[in-house]
DNA sequence: CGAACTTCTCAGGACCCTCTGAACCGGGGG
DNA sequence: CCCCCGGTTCAGAGGGTCCTGAGAAGTTCG
């Protein structure tokens, strides 16, 4: 069976081969980071720096999904989208757009089921969105069923953003939600504060690791409140999320 | 079973194969957006930019429905319609027309069971109209029953435009109706303001996402008034419609 | 032509989220 | 015993998101 570098079972194409993703961004550092994060999911990744090479790469790779910066040196996102669809009509696209350019020309982009995130984003968010796109497109053979993430009696529905523990509803802020999602996707594994910071916080975040401790404390209050704790501290190493009865 | 990219069961042809739709518009951006929205419904879509290529595409695709711009560079929509009918006599047509265009000529055409929408339109509207055309033509085997949409005790009849909650009639303005329809077609799923804007508002709308908040507030006053709320805000993410008892 | 309605902009304000700084806590080592 | 260290928690500033009311412009309809 196909497994990710992270040890989790990979989300694969219906025929069992790894999902193929193309990353298009003119900032090579960002493209590299994104590629790394997606490759970590066990997917086959290639990247391009402009619209023209994006097309040639797409023709070769025949990607299931494309992560596409809207601002490219040669063409605009809409034109690339059109050409991509002529190459592979059922391709999913996740657009990356600058916060201040928001809404200026997103019109219609999400209409086809495609999605977008605004810069600066967190890697966890991008990965989650791509997964969501592929899942909804029926492109991914889901090894776990549906949009549900389960660890012990803790359940997260990624579509409705609902989180319950032992059936009780838990209200979370956006950052709390993303942090918990990251923990739940890596259960029984110690995650260092640096790792968490890299994945859950946006790449331009300047703050210290102290926020992670803070948000872990918030989560404990909501998730572990009065119950058998699932979030554990490993001194000098990081944090683990574990079901109460392994 | 054939499912849409949105996860809903697809509206299929009587023999179970996906419905086939041809989009004809000379604005490539608009054609792209329309194709995307229709493809998202699980239908097989092709597009053309003028009357001549529309015919060749039609001969190949044998579409069940055609979305047809009345103003084309080479011929006018009515000529195309006539040729289409020689290719496939029982094809349904949804005309796209400018607001100030001659509506009386259109009126004659729609007598034949065809329909039209005026530019600028919302994607939700176009998709709903095409669905309606096919349903009425008996072209579509309806997997869910009829023109009725139900979420909890909230019921919408798409044909009569009647909406009731717990049997009580709710009066809605056109925009409120379309917004609610979009929510009801995607229950238990967080919809971002951008997503809603792309789908429910016309493609040329220049305003900000703030209107969505406003209309959600209107809907709440009518749908949730004094009752257990069904419309929920997910801060930083969007809105969800959920039945009170899942 | 006027009335009712619909849509959208604007502005005020409430509330929530995030992050900083500092106090606190408990264990281990000097 | 005291101090250091990693971790936890509290309090609060500031910034942002979201809600709502008022009203202007446009549209529909009698």
TrEMBL record, chains A, B:
Binding region for DNA: 146-243
UniProt keyword tRNA processing, yes or no: no
Family annotation (CDD domains): trans_reg_C
Record domain OmpR/PhoB-type: where: 146-243
Domain Response regulatory: 20-134
Signal sequence coordinates: none
4-aspartylphosphate: residues bearing it: 69
Keywords in alphabetical order: DNA-binding, Phosphoprotein
Protein's name in the database: Response regulator transcription factor
């Amino acid at each position: 069976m196909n497994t990710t570098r992270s040890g989790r079972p990979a989300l694969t194409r219906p025929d069992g081969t790894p999902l193929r993703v193309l990353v298009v961004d003119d900032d090579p550092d960002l493209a590299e980071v994104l590629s790394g994060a997606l490759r970590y999911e066990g997917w086959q990744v290639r990247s391009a720096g402009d619209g023209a090479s994006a097309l040639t790469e797409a023709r070769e790779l025949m990607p299931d999904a494309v992560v596409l910066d809207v601002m490219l040196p040669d063409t605009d996102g809409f034109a690339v989208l059109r050409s991509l669809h002529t190459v592979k009509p059922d391709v999913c696209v996740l657009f990356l757009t600058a916060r201040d350019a928001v809404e200026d020309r997103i019109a219609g982009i999400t209409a086809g089921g495609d999605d977008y995130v605004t810069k600066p984003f967190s890697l966890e968010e991008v990965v989650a969105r791509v997964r969501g796109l592929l899942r909804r497109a029926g492109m991914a053979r889901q090894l776990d069923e549906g949009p549900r993430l389960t660890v012990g009696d803790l359940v997260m529905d990624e579509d409705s953003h609902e989180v319950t523990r032992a059936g009780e509803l838990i209200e979370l802020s956006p950052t709390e939600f993303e942090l918990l999602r990251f923990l739940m996707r890596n259960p029984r594994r110690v995650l260092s504060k640096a790792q968490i910071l890299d994945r859950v916080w946006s790449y331009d975040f300047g703050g210290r690791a102290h926020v992670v401790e803070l948000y872990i404390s918030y989560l404990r209050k909501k998730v572990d409140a009065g119950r058998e704790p699932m979030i554990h501290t490993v001194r000098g190493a990081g944090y683990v999320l574990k079901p109460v009865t392994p």
